[in-house]
Design brief:
The complex is a heterodimer of chains A (about 350) and B (about 270). By secondary structure, chain A is of the alpha+beta class. Chain A folds into two domains: about 5-70 and about 90-190, no CATH class; about 210-240 and about 270-350. Chain A is about 30% helix and about 20% strand. Chain B is of the alpha/beta class. In chain B, strand 3 and strand 4 form a beta hairpin. Chain B folds into two domains: about 10-90, Translation factors (Elongation Factor Tu (Ef-tu), domain 3, Beta Barrel); about 95-260, Nucleotide-binding domain of ferredoxin-NADP reductase (FNR) module (Rossmann fold), CATH 3.40.50.80. Chain B has helices at about 70-75, 95-100, 115-125, 150-155, 205-215, 250, 260, and strands at about 10-20, 25-30, 40-45, 50-60, 60-65, 85-90, 105-110, 135-140, 160-165, 175, 195-200, 225, 245, 245-250, 255. The chains are: A alpha+beta (about 350), B alpha/beta (about 270). At the A-B interface, strand 4, helix 5, strand 11 and helix 8 of A face loops of B. The complex binds flavin-adenine dinucleotide (FAD), iron/sulfur cluster (2 copies) and FE2/S2 (inorganic) cluster.
Chain lengths: ~350, ~270
């Protein structure tokens, strides 16, 4: 990358760096939470504010995605009284967020929805996004189910710095001028940060470029198996780096109080009620329809609106979180085959 | 900071006009611009929000005709003149007015769907030279569910209006018995010389069969306009609830031309 410098820092220098960074930034990174996992004795790796280099868990993929820092699972938008809604307070500090190439690429998709869609900026997203910078975590090893290379999310330039992690030292590449001063005393290095070039898992990510193809696929028998297999729990979308949907809910502090909060809470097209209207009418009643909707949004709907390819960065968290062991890559490969089957039929039909 | 697009503002209820037992029109103080066919988000702190079409508007007010169906709407029905409700919006594209100018306009609406076209019909009533003429087919379940009775009478008597009012399964004077689709044949499409537009709004099943009925009557797809209703939360294209593939009903709709609407498969 042009105009970058790389430095090699030892443990004590890294602690000094973090102390220095914390003067201006709230630093977020994946942290190991012992036994917080889904099964007894499995740890979780969650995004938390960190104070020291050694707080960061870099050997494992975080259980939940980086988006949580910008769009928490639940956040207060407004405080209300009987006569007014008052915005909640913006963050007190700038944010510095550690993430992998896939995680950082997912922010582009979050930005498309929260900042670009309909030409309206979401004020609650914008006020944190404007103050956020990213630090790339080099992937020295890959994890089960990673397929970033199949969706072109293995490379990014949206970061201010990049870290190559060692047990007691780190190589740090600085590309954002604003961080140069932190390294004035640091030892230069000729290390260069690497991006993943190939994953063990390769996915034939489907391409649907027309609405009539998407509509034809909605009736395809391939979705039926999910009526039995998927329990519509929504774990896959909560864990997804690129899913953005939410619910708004008002809560009150006590039964009779006329004061409370309007909250925004992570939601999912996989769970019942997402599309439910007055009178209980739903548009997607069957689980297979919900699953089909989720997949076609990632493959077709988002791309048709923004023309930037898959709404997926291949982070593998959806499959890793699924209690029914449903493989999202297997669904994608099946969908690609279904498209290939339809295409020659259509060519023959038009001939 | 620019105005927060999802912050609700307290607005005074100026009047409440019951239409039926479960459908009331709330007249609310409002200075924001409204276009025919748009909707606003109505909030009651502690309870939540609901998207509601503007059924009328004028200097200093906007009307909402609301059916009592659940949490927020129940809450609204417990309010009185002088109380406040919280508004944000307007949202959505609204009816494409320019497409209707100097044409024959056909409006087929069912139930609460009538409130989504009421301000438009009134605009054409107040300016009867806007369209060549107006053909209305408005249907309700029974006499107890009729909305805007006074307005229906007024419209029926307008020189350039041709109004058919239907009840699904009840005989009553001034009303035809049957579904709105049964009366599509009474519209003299052949005499319009191709110079017309059709508007359809009502429950999804009614819109589906009315659309098909119009096609059978030889109406070209691009002459049909529909207003869609979907679950909504944010109304600004963020929450995802109203999305159908690449289309966001809150942003790109709720009004769609049939050429687009017919291919929206949830
Ligand atoms: C563009 C648009 C215009 C509308 N115009 C009118 C109108 O002019 N008059 C009118 O009476 N109604 C209108 N509605 C329907 C109205 O929004 C719902 O009846 C209302 O949201 C129900 O809210 P509730 O809290 O009373 O019901 P709830 O207790 O929340 O729920 C009752 C049912 O309504 C569903 N619901 C909840 N929130 C919404 C929502 N935001 N959108 C759709 N369904 C929802 C619930 O899933 C449930 O099935 C419109 C809807 C849309 C999308
Ligand atoms: S769909 Fe799965 S692999 Fe793709 S970004 Fe979401 S969680 Fe990651
Ligand atoms: S695919 Fe798996 S994680 Fe997603 S809703 Fe279905 S069961 Fe839950
Ligand atoms: S209502 Fe939230 S995206 Fe349309």
């Amino acid at each position: 990358m042009e105009n970058t410098s790389t430095y090699h820092l030892q443990a004590d220098e890294l602690d000094a760096l973090f102390a220095h960074l914390e003067e201006q930034y709230l630093v977020y990174a994946p942290v190991r939470i012992p036994s917080g996992g889904r099964y007894a004795q499995t740890d979780s790796v969650l995004y938390r504010p960190v104070h020291r280099y050694e707080d960061i868990e870099y050997r494992e993929r975080s259980t939940y995605p980086m988006k949580e820092v910008l769009t928490p699972i639940t956040q207060t938008l407004f405080y209300f009284t009987e006569d007014q809604y008052q915005e909640s307070k913006p963050p007190a500090k700038d944010l510095l967020i550690f993430g992998r190439a896939c995680d950082i690429n997912a922010i582009r998709i979050q930005d498309q929805i929260y900042l670009l869609n309909g030409g309206v900026e979401d004020p609650f997203y914008k006020r944190v996004r404007d103050r956020a910078k990213f630090v790339l975590m080099e992937c020295a090893q890959q994890f089960e189910g990673c397929f970033c290379c199949s969706v072109g999310a293995n490379v990014t330039d949206m970061h201010a710095m990049a870290f190559s992690f060692g047990e007691r030292d780190a190589q740090i590449e600085v590309s954002d001028e604003a961080f140069r001063d932190y390294f004035s005393q640091a030892k230069p290095s000729d290390y260069s940060i690497r991006f993943p070039e190939e994953n063990e898992l390769k996915v034939n990510y489907p391409v649907i470029d027309r609405m009539d193809m998407a509509n034809r696929l909605k009736d395809h028998p391939m979705w039926r198996e999910f009526d039995d297999r998927c329990i519509a729990c929504g774990s896959c979308t909560v864990a997804c780096s690129t899913c953005t949907c939410f619910e708004s809910t008002d809560i009150v502090y006590t039964q009779n109080a006329h004061i409370g909060e309007r909250r925004r809470t992570c939601s999912s097209c996989m769970v019942g009620g997402f599309d439910q209207m007055a009178g209980g009418q739903c548009f997607r009643n069957k689980t297979s329809e919900k699953y089909r909707y989720k997949i076609l949004h990632k493959v077709y709907g988002h791309d048709a609106r923004f023309h930037t390819g898959p709404m997926c960065v291949g982070c593998g968290r959806c499959s890793a979180r699924c209690p029914e062991l449903i493989s999202y890559p297997a669904t994608l490969n099946k969908l690609s085959r279904a498209i290939e089957e339809i295409q020659p039929e259509e060519v023959a039909h038009h001939a | 900071m620019l105005e927060n697009p999802i912050k609700p503002h307290a607005c005074e209820i100026l009047d409440i006009l019951p239409q039926t037992e479960t459908e009331w029109t709330f007249r609310v103080a409002n200075d924001r611009p409204v276009r025919h066919g748009q909707f606003m988000q109505l909030s009651l702190p502690r309870i939540g929000e609901a998207p509601i079409s503007a059924s009328g508007f004028g200097s200093g007010y906007v009307d909402f005709t609301i059916r009592k169906v659940g949490k927020v709407t129940d809450g609204l029905f417990s309010l009185q003149k002088g109380d406040s409700i919280f508004l944000r919006g307007c949202y959505g594209n609204g009816w494409p007015l320019e497409r209707f100018r100097n044409k024959h306009v056909v409006i087929i609406a069912g139930g609460t769907g009538v409130s989504a076209v009421k301000s438009l019909v009134d605009m054409m009533y107040n300016d009867q030279s806007y369209a060549k003429d107006l053909h209305l087919i408005f249907g309700f379940k029974n006499t107890c569910s009729v909305l805007f009775s006074d307005d229906l009478l007024r419209w029926k008597n307008a020189a350039s209006f041709h109004a058919t009012y239907t009840l699904d399964a009840e005989e009553a004077e001034g009303w035809q018995k049957g579904l709105v689709t049964d009366f599509l044949g009474s519209i003299p499409f052949a005499s319009f010389g191709g110079d017309y537009e059709c508007i359809v709004v009502g429950p999804p099943i009614m819109m589906k069969f009315t659309g098909l009925g119009l096609l059978t009557s030889g109406v070209p797809e691009d002459h049909i306009w529909m207003s869609f209703e979907r679950k909504m939360s944010c109304a600004i294209g963020k929450c995802g609830h109203c999305r159908i593939d690449e289309t966001y009903v809150c942003l790109d709709g709720p009004v769609f031309n049939y050429t687009i609407g017919r291919s929206l498969v949830d």
